[in-house]
Design a protein that fits this description.
elongated, alpha/beta, five-stranded parallel beta sheet, 5 strands, about 50% helix, Rossmann fold
């Protein structure tokens, strides 16, 4: 059980006050960028409310009462988590919730239904959920978790109390990475994960995973080879060892060129701290105007590349790299 949720102190205070003042809403919408802990906080809030010895000041359930133990074991029938199946939340999943027994608290204070990525509700599921939310039952709480609230109907959003989540601070992301069960040994990689996270723990974890770092190392080996000998990138040869990396490769490339811009202008913290020397070399090599042109072309090609409408990613990225290189002028 997650005992201490990183960050979001304002949101914790709002939710704790609602319970203590007996003003708990029947439906909430937790919204904000992906990977900042919305679902985690929703689950811990449900645990906290049903805990026999809640610590609202620290937003922490006791972990030892009957409700907490059952939730740790995944056996608490009063805290339900609904998630997409094959990228969709289906009508049948919501239909199960309409069963009177499933919507009534069995042995806890409240029944919580947490719908993760609520924007993935199927067209058939939406009216069923709306009907359920429109007819609130006592001591039943829905929490819809969705990064993009525009994916939900106005009629659903209007019936929910919205709790907005901002990005975590860099210090909070770093605290999370340092607390991992399998710690990252390289301090530079931790710093890299923190700076590229955009305040999202999920993004930091994804980009510091073993496979992600292997791919990143391969990309930087190619960038080093291009700097030294003008050898073109051969991303295609590397990508076969990874899955779904087309957009990620572009992100690595973009992150590097943005770092070059930061060094060139002396503004901002670079993300690739372990590759600082290579960043400085490119900053000396490339004129500012060329760097800006490269970034513009990367942004213009990103959406096309991510949709796989351009099959030869090597050609796209090498074209950008070569056009920016003053040695080829």
């Amino acid at each position: 059980m997650q005992k201490n949720i990183t960050g979001h102190d304002k949101q914790k205070r709002i939710l704790s006050a609602a319970v203590k003042n007996n003003k708990l809403a029947h439906a909430y919408l937790f919204t904000g960028r992906d990977g900042v802990g919305k679902k985690t906080l929703a689950l811990e809030f449900a645990r906290l409310v049903n805990c026999e010895n809640p610590d609202y000041q620290n937003f922490r359930a006791c972990a030892v009462c009957v409700s907490c133990v059952k939730q740790t074991q995944g056996l608490n029938p009063d805290i339900l988590l609904v998630q997409a199946e094959k990228n969709s939340i289906k009508r049948e999943q919501i239909a199960e919730l309409l069963n009177s027994n499933s919507l009534s608290s069995i042995f806890n204070k409240y029944k919580f239904v947490i719908i993760d990525e609520a924007g993935k509700l199927s067209r058939e599921a939406v009216p069923m959920l709306l009907k359920t939310i429109e007819e609130p039952l006592e001591r039943r709480v829905f929490i819809l978790v969705e990064a993009n609230p525009a994916l939900l109907l106005n009629t659903i959003r209007s019936r929910c109390q919205t709790v907005k989540f901002g990005p975590l601070t860099l210090a909070q992301v770093k605290e999370f990475l340092l607390a991992k069960e399998e710690p990252i040994e390289d301090a530079n990689i931790i710093e890299y994960g923190v700076r590229v996270s955009d305040g999202s723990v999920a993004k930091a974890l994804e980009l510091t995973g073993v496979k992600a770092l292997e791919l990143r190392a391969a990309i930087f080996t190619m960038l080093e080879a291009y700097y030294k000998n003008r050898l073109l990138l051969e991303v295609k040869a590397v990508k076969k060892n990874f899955e779904n990396v087309t957009a990620v490769v572009t992100d690595y490339f973009s992150s590097f060129i943005y770092d070059v811009l930061k060094v060139k202008t002396g503004q901002g913290l670079i993300c690739n701290v372990d590759k600082e020397e290579l960043v400085k070399k490119y900053a000396q090599l490339l004129p500012l105007e060329n760097i800006m042109t490269m970034l513009s072309e990367i942004d213009a090609s990103r959406s096309v590349i991510s949709r796989n409408r351009i099959l030869n990613q090597d050609l796209v990225l090498n074209n950008i790299l070569v056009k920016g290189d003053i040695r080829n002028g």
